[in-house]
Amino acid sequence: MRLTKMHGLGNDFILFADSKGASKDYTDLAIRLCDRRTGIGADGLTILVPSDTCDIRMRIINSDGSEAEMCGNAIRCFAKYAYEHGEITKDTFTIETLAGVMKPSLTIENSVVTQVTVDMGKPFFKAREIPMNVDMDKVIDVDLDVNGEAVTVSSVLLGVPHTEVFIDDITKAPVKTQGPILEKHDAFPANTNVNYVEVVNDHHIKVRTWERGAGATLACGTGSCASAVMACEKGLTGREVDVELYLGILHISYLEDGTVLMTGPAEEVFETELPIE
Ligand SMILES: NC(CCC[C@H](N)C(=O)O)C(=O)O
To answer: How far is the CA of 110 from the centre of ligand 1 (A)?
Structure first.
């Protein structure tokens, strides 16, 4: 099996194509390969499989073996992988995911994909769409009890469920302590990704994420989109926002019609061949 290790701003993935992978169970493979001591190490597997409705289909399996509906950093890596490995010859195409159809546009320099812009679709705000156990049309500034402490959260579905906690200083974000508690809080029947957000000004935010099924990661693409959307909905920023992550910036455009565009890099780290079925 030919594997490609890639990352999007440090959120890292192992990619491969599997023409018979439409409904395969990759749980064990993900846990084995993603282990950072005994495997290759990654936040997830990203698998290219054939699609009946789009140009190609992406499956994303978290490092704990659970399957996610979508992944923003993985889809930029996936789009670059598909083009540079000859699976796709166009610079704009469609990708089927469990969260619907995503549309990447590639910036190509000397046959190398340097940036990818993805039309991520529109966010869903209703509590039952996220899903979340409260009855609200837009889940903005709800107090949740976290071990006796009231934590104010806002939530949105952007491919996957996201919860934002706005804080004054990103260096104090309790990612690894509060993140896992919020991820599995009773309020979220499907669990949630947790983003800590510092608003720097009306076009610049900083984000740190605790990911559902993967833990603390260096960047989260859908989380960056969700954070930018929520900052705008709360009146803290405009519709064009730079999201600062540990290793760089994702640019998010939240268009007037609700469509979210995400632009950022994707990098290949190495390729290898392993004797895996
Ligand atoms: N890394 C992500 C999100 C991956 C999915 C997530 N762990 C989940 O299960 O919801 C991104 O870049 O969007």
So the answer is: 30
